[in-house]
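Listing S7. Sequence submitted for prediction.
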Amino acid sequence: MHTEVFSELFPLMSTANPQTLEWLLSVAVEHEYPAGRAVLMEDAWGNAVYFVVSGWVKVRRTIGEDSVALAILGRGDFFGEMAILDESPRSTDVIALSTVKLLSISRERFIHILFKDPQLHHRMLQLMVRRLRHANVRLQMRSAPPAVKLAHTLVSLGESYSEESSKGREIFNISFKDLADVTEIGVEETTKIMEKLDEKGWIKIDNANQVVHLVNFRQLMNLAGKV
């Protein structure tokens, strides 16, 4: 991967200097996992930060015999930074939803370059603050109607990870259970709302190709209250 592609693909790297990018790529390790494979396990000590080159993963927490999806991440995002910064075991699992390609950079090397490149350090702080803000928005939306909350989830995924297609923005066909978990509504409610949105033509669920087309993104934004 060229440094220009690396910088464009990952917002975290957008302000890093060329020397930083070259060094990170030289020490990065490539990984590929099939759908359903655990990428990181809860209680494992944080020894690397991971960058999603392609595909989709979910961050989940296991409670007894049940698991709850906390977040869905796609191309251009990263994870594992919390465990390496506070030097503690991970509190969540990361599971591949689709075939996923990752780059990992060891904890020692990543922390080393954060101290050497102030711009990268600052950018990482910005993105971590943004995640906190998103978490705050989710808390504020807990009393919103289920359809509004689900539209907000779809819009957020579309804004962060979608690819353009002839049918509009395209995201992975995330299971209704995982969508329900990250939206904090019931699976039955999620199923009914997704089917209704499909009937209205706002989305198009393509099970054969494992994608969801966000056909009428403007209407979804209106429903989510983001316009």
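Caption to Listing S7: primary sequence and predicted structure tokens for the chain studied. The chain is about 45% helix and 25% strand. The CA atoms of residues 43 and 89 lie 5 Å apart.
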